[in-house]
Amino acid sequence: MTTEAHTESTEATTAAPTGVILTDVAAVKVKALIEQEGRDDLRLRIAVQPGGCSGLRYQLFFDERSLDGDVVSDFNGVEVVVDRMSSPYLAGATIDFADRIDAQGFTIDNPNAQNSCACGDSFH
Q1: CA pair distance 106, 112, nearest whole angstrom
Q2: Is residue 4 part of a domain?
């Protein structure tokens, strides 16, 4: 999955308890990818980890685990999970999916990111 630090999103659902917003387009794409995996126990986990050029890096992956302190939200049948340590960094962030000639993949527009690296892979 490819991530970008800042993009515009025009179609979004309301903010969830995770503080993350998953657009309808992204929810459809996540649902399709989970169906391709052939498992119904997977959820989209969004985390922030140390790394990258700017200090913090996004991680988006499918996960069946439930960890202590996880915050789970449902977007059109897609469960989004954020761990308690990542939650403050992701409050208000919008996850979208772009499929255009100039961009393809999942994008993250995070109002908490003060700066990001040129490649868009990390922030601080």
Answers
A1: 18
A2: no
